[in-house]
Amino acid sequence: MDARAAPPPVRRERRRRTLRQVSRNLLPALVLALFAIFFVLPVLWLVLAATKTGDQLIYGSPLSFGSWHALRANWDALTRYEGDTIFLWLRNSAVYSFLALAITLVVVIPAGYALAMTEFRGRRALLTATLVVMVMPNTTLVVPLFLEINAVHLIGSMWSIILPYAFYPFGVYLAYIYFSTTLPKALLEAARLDGCSEIGTFRRVALPLAAPIIALVGFFGFVANWTNYFLPYVLLPESNQFPVQVGLGMLAVPRPALALATLLAITPVLVVFLFCQRFLVSGVLAGVS
Questions:
Q1: Which 3 state secondary structure label does DSSP give 185?
Q2: What average pLDDT does this structure show over 82-109?
Q3: Contact criterion met (CB below 8 Å) for 89 and 244
Q4: Strand, helix or coil at 105?
Q5: Residue 109 neighbours by CB distance under 10 Å
Q6: 140-168 per-position pLDDT tens digit
Q7: Alpha-carbon distance 193 to 165, whole Å?
Q8: Is the CB of residue 235 less than 8 Å from the CB of residue 127?
Q9: Would you tell me which CATH number, out of the four given (3.40.50.720, 1.10.3720.10, 3.40.50.150, 3.10.450.50), belongs to the domain 83-285?
Q10: By the 8 A CB rule, do 226 and 94 touch?
Q11: Domain boundaries, the chain
Q12: 0.85 cut: is pTM over it?
């Protein structure tokens, strides 16, 4: 029986089902469109701003393309500022971020595993302290960190930035959640019965299965390191030591060239995200089921 031959109540029920299905599909599409407008339009404006002159940026259409000539002029203005200082700042950011990230991963993953899989005196207090520090704003720790770094005479050195960056309690908490909810306990017990020590069990069983959480902690840690502004601003006295986030505030260039510098500053985060996105999804979903 086709739809035209169906009784009126049947046709009405089919229409209702169709409308419900359309509404279910329309709501997610509307939410995604709103998110796209909220997040994509500012980035698009920033990209287009780098192609304009100063007058075009102020008086022109916000989402209009300037010219390739203006983009080249902005690039020249940016790279001529104090002899390619922008690239020095980018290099400093890369050194601080990646060295701190290496220390973070070496410390955070075993710490999360130990909190999740072993029982020892003070475990609960240590986990509580980790959670408390995790929810504290970073700015509240700047003065204590300054006093500690000054006490060991590291003010002005790159280690005054790298060592505080490497302390990442949120990463410890993520690793703790992953190991306590996702890692099969029977697999670890089998390794112990085969004669593996706790360190051997971690290295041969837990660590190979921890790629998603390593990627997740690595990405969040890198972004936190790369975007940190206040700590380097307080601890580094010389401009040639600045990371790019602090350096952007010191740039005396036209506004379109500053927009271009901002694009350079966010590009490494985008590259790391694209490189890690497959592991990020599995890391975020780990422990959900």
A1: helix
A2: 91
A3: yes
A4: helix
A5: 24
A6: 888 888 888 888 888 888 898 998 888 88
A7: 39
A8: no
A9: 1.10.3720.10
A10: no
A11: 1-42, 83-285
A12: no
